[in-house]
């Protein structure tokens, strides 16, 4: 196959050092959130049938995000791939069908974009003939005007592209809350809920049990049996 799927992702340890997604200060819990995101990304990537190139901090080259991503694309093209599709680890809405469609469209159109709700992109695919390393590096990566900027530059150069469905990504605690609220029945949302909120529920239940036991213990000895029975 002439298309590579480049997963541009730091390890969960490095991600949690860079950005806190947890509602708690517990670094272990923050790392586990990234473990979930990375695990899901890996599962979707492997099921796509596209050659997967995993670029974490052990193989990324460069001083900043834009330089490292540009170098990753260059490395993939140097391996002989004609098309490279890149994704991160922060889009729980990304599906296998999205990747298969992107693989088809990048071969047909030359460029495919997956716009994110925050103004960035969750996916970008480019044909080698259209890849300009210097221009690619200068794009406003990690900014809210990234998708609009790419769109305008392509229009200015009369370059067509295919646009995938808009998805949300997870960059903050607020993003996690919104994702769970909008897709409470999804498997991934349930995993996040279990990780983030189950301990608090358990503590609350433990507290209520303690209150009940404390109340029973301090009931008067002549309390009506029916009242005692209600706590059993």
Percent strand equals 5-15%
Q: Could you state the order of secondary-structure elements as H and E? A: EHHEHEHEEHHEHHH
Q: How many domains in all?
A: 2
The CATH homology group name of the largest domain: Spore Coat Polysaccharide Biosynthesis Protein SpsA, Chain A
- Integer average pLDDT: 84
Low-confidence stretches: 200-232
Q: Structural class, from helix and strand content?
A: alpha/beta
So what's the CATH class of the largest domain?
Alpha Beta
**How far apart, in Å, are the first and last alpha carbons?**
66 Å
The percentage helix is 40-55%
What's the architecture of the largest domain, going by CATH?
Alpha-Beta Complex
Strand tally is 6
Tell me the Rg in angstroms.
24 Å
Biggest sheet details: 6 strands, mixed
Using the coordinates shown, work out and report the CATH topology of the largest domain: Spore Coat Polysaccharide Biosynthesis Protein SpsA, Chain A
Biggest sheet strand line-up: 2-1-3-5-4-6
SS field, number of helical segments: 9
Name the overall outline: globular
């Amino acid at each position: 196959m002439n298309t590579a799927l480049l997963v541009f992702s730091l390890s969960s340890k490095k991600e949690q050092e860079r950005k806190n997604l947890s509602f708690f200060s517990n670094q272990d819990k923050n790392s586990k959130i990234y473990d979930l995101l990375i695990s899901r990304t890996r599962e979707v990537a492997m099921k796509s049938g596209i050659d997967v190139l995993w670029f974490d901090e052990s193989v990324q080259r460069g001083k900043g995000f834009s330089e490292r991503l540009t170098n990753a694309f260059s490395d993939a093209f140097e391996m002989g791939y004609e098309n490279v599709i890149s994704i991160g680890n922060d889009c729980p809405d990304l599906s296998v069908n999205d990747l298969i469609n992107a693989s088809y469209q990048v071969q047909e159109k030359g460029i495919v974009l997956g716009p994110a709700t925050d103004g960035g992109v969750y996916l970008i695919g480019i044909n080698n003939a259209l890849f300009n390393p210097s221009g690619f590096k200068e794009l406003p990566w990690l900014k809210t005007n990234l998708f609009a900027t790419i769109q305008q530059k392509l229009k200015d150069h009369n370059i067509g592209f295919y646009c995938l469905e808009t998805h949300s990504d997870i960059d903050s605690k607020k993003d996690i809350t919104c994702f769970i609220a909008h897709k409470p029945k999804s498997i991934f949302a349930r995993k996040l809920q279990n990780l983030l909120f189950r301990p608090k529920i358990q503590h609350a239940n433990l507290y209520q049990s303690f209150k009940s036991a404390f109340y029973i213990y301090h009931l008067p000895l002549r309390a009506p049996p029916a009242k005692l029975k209600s706590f059993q």
